[in-house]
């Protein structure tokens, strides 16, 4: 009997870990040179669920109409076409000690900026960017939907910023 | 970068930044490459699938007008130093040039600059040479491309027709050299920027 109770009790956290692992985890890791290291794990499922159960007016952010326009149409078209394009290095800029690279790799758009003082890497899932641009174009941004789109970028480091001894990363596991 | 070089790049921009359609002549993906290299190690390389360029411009009605035409306004093309040439004048000159075959179209010489535009085979060559520079500006544009661009009426360039010609091209579209910088625009089927002629 005790064994059964033990198995049941163990099953609860294990199931939770399984659900979180299966649905994705966003981890923000901030390491400052003269401060504590802060790690914030955010289960994607939790954010999605919170967004779904929120009142309708709280589920989206309404944007000013001036954000709509041909530039957003062009951006949306570019992202759609890029998603279909083969992998490639799109942009390479070398200017003294500053180097910029933009790649399209699979479903990801990767941007890396290396400067004399800091390095910045950003990885943008095309699915997320397409959804975000579409929502901005429609004048309503649904954060829950955007978080859900991060599932397409599992095991991806979205942001990596090094500034001296400070280091910030945002990773989707 | 010198004003003439910038002017040439600006003139080339509508041609390059226009919608392209599928590649009937090739099974591979066509890539538009732009490479700008200036002194002191400054380099900019851009590689874009033509489909992306097409999609962007199809979605930007401000860039391309009805029927794929770009209108340049009353002053037409700016040739630098306050000189302008209307598209209608350019079209007339072009039709005469085509009839003449290989020849010099325009030769302008003043105290510090010489401009020469000539047709040589399948290329229109533009050369700008300043007295105080060892190297000048060299631009080579395919004849068929100019032909297509000038097929519109009035003060407009038919960008869509120009792009129909560009789709057939593989190799250099524009190449500009001057003392300070080189600009090269070409089309090939390689995703990287090291190909081309």
Textual characterization of the structure:
- The complex is a heterodimer of chains A (173) and B (197).
- Chain A has 173 residues and is α+β, with helices and mostly antiparallel strands.
- Chain A contains 6 helices and 10 strands, in the order H-E-E-H-H-E-H-E-E-E-E-H-E-H-E-E.
- Chain A has one domain (24-172).
- Chain A has helices at 2-23, 44-53, 56-59, 70-84, 126-138, 143-149; strands at 25-31, 37-43, 61-62, 88-95, 98-105, 108-114, 118-125, 140-141, 156-163, 166-172.
- Chain A has an 8-stranded antiparallel sheet with strand order 2-1-10-9-7-6-5-4. In chain A, strands 3-8 form a two-stranded antiparallel ribbon.
- In chain A, helix 4 runs antiparallel to helix 5.
- Chain A starts with a helix and ends with a strand.
- Chain B is an alpha+beta fold.
- Chain B has one domain.
- Chain B is 27% helix and 37% strand.
- Chain B has helices at residues 3-16, 50-58, 87-100, 143-149, 159-168; strands spanning 31-38, 42-49, 69-71, 77-80, 83-85, 103-109, 113-120, 123-130, 137-142, 156-158, 171-177, 181-188.
- In chain B, the strands form 4 sheets. In chain B, strands 2-1-12-11 form a 4-stranded antiparallel sheet.
- In chain B, helix 4 runs antiparallel to helix 5 (159-168).
- The longest helix of chain B is centred in the first third of the chain and has 14 residues, at 3-16.
- The model of chain B is unreliable at 1-27 (pLDDT under 50).
- Classes of the chains: A alpha+beta (173), B alpha+beta (197).
- The A-B interface holds A 70-71, 73-74, 76-78, 80-82, 84-96 and B 29, 31, 40-49, 51-52, 54-62, 191-193.
Task: List strands and helices in order, with pairings.
The complex is a heterodimer of chains A (173) and B (197).
Chain A: H1 2-23, E1 25-31, E2 37-43, H2 44-53, H3 56-59, E3 61-62, H4 70-84, E4 88-95, E5 98-105, E6 108-114, E7 118-125, H5 126-138, E8 140-141, H6 143-149, E9 156-163, E10 166-172
Antiparallel strand pairs in A: 1-2, 1-10, 3-8, 4-5, 5-6, 6-7, 7-9, 9-10
Helix pairs in contact in A: 2-6, 4-5, 5-6
Chain B: H1 3-16, E1 31-38, E2 42-49, H2 50-58, E3 69-71, E4 77-80, E5 83-85, H3 87-100, E6 103-109, E7 113-120, E8 123-130, E9 137-142, H4 143-149, E10 156-158, H5 159-168, E11 171-177, E12 181-188
